[in-house]
Amino acid sequence: MVSTLSWPIRAVGAAIIDGSTAAGDITLFARQVIGSAFGRWPRSHVLWPCCYEIGYRSMPVIMVTGVFIGMVLAVQSFDQLRAMRLENRIGSVINISLVKELGPVLAATMLAGRVGSSMAAEIGTMRVTEQIDALKALGADPVRYLVTPRFLGCFLLIPILTVIADALGMLGGWFLSTQVLGVSSYAYWMYSDSYVTAYDIASGLIKRVFFGGALASVACHRGFYCGGGAEGVGKAATEAFVYSFIVIMGIDFVLGVLLMNVQGLFSTVQATLV
Amino acid sequence: MEPLIHLRRVSRSFGSLEVLREISLGLFRGETLALVGESGCGKSVTTKLMAALTEPSRGEVLWSGQPVAEMPRETMRLARLRLGYLFQGAALFDSLSVFENVAFGLVENGGHIKSEIEDVVHDHLRHVGLPAAAALKRPSELSGGMRKRVGLARALAVSPEIMIYDEPTTGLDPIMSDVINELIIKTANDRQMTSVVVTHDMNTVRRVATRVIMLSPVSRLGPGESQVLFAGPTQEIFEVDDPVIRDFVTGNAERRLEELAA
After folding, report:
1. Nearest C-alpha in A relative to B108
2. Contact assignment for B77 to A133 by CB distance below 8 Å
3. What structural domains does chain B harbor?
């Protein structure tokens, strides 16, 4: 009886302990990677292929994602705005959502699937085929050799990729709003311009930088410590996506609250000065 | 004489699975030590502990009397270059060519100009009996025997004092196995190399080893029993009366089949 009752408590306790351990592991790993990234710069013949894979090869998928995010936002918001006779302001809704929230999160999620899973599978395969041990045996630091270039690639290029996704999302939203839904092009851009502030753009960019770093750390961690065999590699690739997604949402929430408070603080200071 | 590598009462577990229990062994200069035992007895884990590629759960690993756990990171990285390691599946870097694989240790650790590296790579490919044209190939284009030989060339290119071979002949045909055995002997003789060979192949043991250690899986140990079933000169393992050792050496599965049936 006691054991039946205590089972859910034990299960929840175990899940909390496992989750905390994983979070702690990933944090320590990220610290090691960041330390290494600010130390010796990776060799160009290692860094450039990573940048090519993360940046250039992700362009098609990120462009398609961006366009569709913009168009879906237009479709979803048009009816409600029209009901309030505010359809001309659709540009502000689409572009604020794109720049601050949906653009960075959805593009980062897409990249977690494309880049994160592939990085975890690649490093995981190297783990199970003893290539990581071989790196160590040959005097190379596996974190510096394998993880740092991928971290730098994500950290530097994911913000750029998500900005491209945003730009295409704006164009997608503009195209659907003006060519299909009949909103005037002038109103679309005018309201976008008057509602989207520099602070919105900056806060979106800050989030993107964190998303890039977090995605690389989580994905590389799962690959680096993956279990044995093909099953272990598959599990690492799946976990890389799932964990990255959770971490991206967590960072989005924390930074969202933090940046909102900072914005509130700025407004108060500005009002006091005026 | 102080051992080059000393495992002192070392245990190693992976989660709840105990692979090594209180193993103590030393590797002495100039010898070729064979580590034998049935699958799962911890031979490969022992060599990884020797090379500091994994850490013991308990106990201590010493290199020339110095505890590895106390070495600063950079000292350990440099000290590790004294050891060459031929991995079971060769562990060649898939994204690099054969040339880049063999040159890897030299490039990564610096201090060599391009022409020196080219000379070293071609010398070592020649040493393991591979043609110069093989340098341009990718690991995926190589046979199992060629992969092992490239792995050996890569390990030897950084001029180690100690060479560890993890199942060097596993998965190879008898002729290629003999080629690899010859290479181990040639390498040990030409370079006064100290070697550790993990193998199931008693023919390899007979040909290359000067001393043998036989391990038992922890799961088969009774209370207070040592995991080391045999430790002594190579010839002696072929003359021992112990039925477990004799069965392993001769490849006699009768007793094991009876155990399984029971």
Report:
1. A140
2. no
3. 1-82+163-173+195-262 (3.40.50.300)
Residue type, A222: R
- Which pLDDT does position A10 carry in this prediction? 87
Query: Tokens representing B223?
Result: 């209370």
**CB–CB of B158 and A129 under 8 A?**
no
Each residue of A239-257: pLDDT tens digit?
999 999 999 999 999 999 9
Give per-residue pLDDT as tens, A26-83.
899 999 888 888 877 888 888 999 999 999 999 999 999 999 999 999 999 999 999 9
Which strand (E) or helix (H) includes residue A178?
none
Q: Give A11-17 contacts, CB < 8 A, sequence gap 24+.
A: none
> Chain B residues with CB inside 8 Å of A130's CB?
87-89, 91
What value does the CA radius of gyration of chain B take, rounded to a whole number of Å?
19
pLDDT of residue A38: 81
DSSP bridge pairs for B10: B23
Please tell me whether the overall predicted TM-score, pTM, comes out greater than 0.80 for this model.
yes
| Residues from chain A contacting residue B75 (CB–CB below 8 Å) | none
Cα–Cα distance list, A167 to A74, A108, A163, A172, A263 (Å): 15, 15, 6, 9, 24
ipTM, two decimals, is 0.90
CA–CA distance, B203 with B184 (Å, rounded to integer)? 13
Distance from CA of B149 to the nearest CA of A (A): 15
3-state SS record for chain B: CCCCEEEEEEEEEECCEEEEEEEEEEECCCCEEEEEECCCCCHHHHHHHHCCCCCCCEEEEEECCEEHHHCCHHHHHHHHCCEEEECCCCCCCCCCCHHHHHHHHHHHHCCCCHHHHHHHHHHHHHHCCCCHHHHHCCHHHCCHHHHHHHHHHHHHCCCCCEEEEECCCCCCCHHHHHHHHHHHHHHHHHCCCEEEEECCCHHHHHHHCCEEEEECCHHHCCCCCCCEEEEEEHHHHCCCCCHHHHHHHHCCCHHHHHHHHC
Closest CA in chain B for residue A139: B77
pLDDT tens across B198-242, in order?
Answer: 998 899 999 999 999 999 999 888 888 899 999 999 999 998 888
- Closest to A140 in 3D by CA, of B213, B260, B73: B73
Mutate to test the interface with B, among A135, A138, A226 (most CBs of B within 10 A): A138
Nearest residue, CB atoms, A139 vs list B89, B95, B109: B109
Say whether B89 and A130 touch across the interface (CB within 8 A): yes
Q: Which residue's structure tokens are 């806060």? A: A203
